[in-house]
Amino acid sequence: MTNSRSSVKNVWNIVNKIAVKRSPIEVKHLQDGDKKVTSFADIADTLAVNFSEVLYSLRYKAKFQSHKERTESHPFKFNSNNTETYNTYLEYSWFIS
């Protein structure tokens, strides 16, 4: 898996091998760098992390990425006593005519 240089075709080939419905081949592990991932949950997590890294790097220009990272490194200051109207519960009956 490793990084954003992995071809989309290669990633989908791996996904298709994991999806039992699409392939009779049973995938028992995924190689992620030097680490062998063996449980289905860990394989799914590894794929999710790699997909998010690829998509993140493709979505934004470098200048915006650096601004976003700089901005998000500061703690978010938000104080609330939780009585704002957007915190009230909605009732299903309000939406039924």
Question: What is this entry, summarized?
Answer:
This protein has 97 residues and is mostly helical.
Description:
The chain has 97 residues and is mostly helical. Helices cover 43% and strands 6% of the residues. A two-stranded antiparallel sheet has the order 1-2. The model has no long low-confidence stretch (mean pLDDT 76).
**So what's the overall shape?**
extended
Mean pLDDT: 76
N- to C-terminal distance: 51 Å
> Which structural class do the helices and strands define?
mainly alpha
Largest sheet: 2 strands, antiparallel
Percent helix among the residues? 40-55%
DSSP summary, beta strand count: 2
The amount of beta strand, in percent, is: 5-15%
The spatial strand order of the largest sheet comes to 1-2
Count every helix, treating DSSP H or I runs of 4 or more residues as helices: 3
Taking all Cα atoms into account, the compactness measure Rg is: 21 Å
Given as residue ranges, the uncertain stretches (5+ residues, pLDDT < 50) are: none
Order of helices and strands: HEEHH
Please describe the topology of this protein.
Elements: H1 8-18, E1 30-32, E2 35-37, H2 40-59, H3 62-72
Antiparallel strand pairs: 1-2
Keywords:
mainly alpha, extended, two-stranded antiparallel ribbon
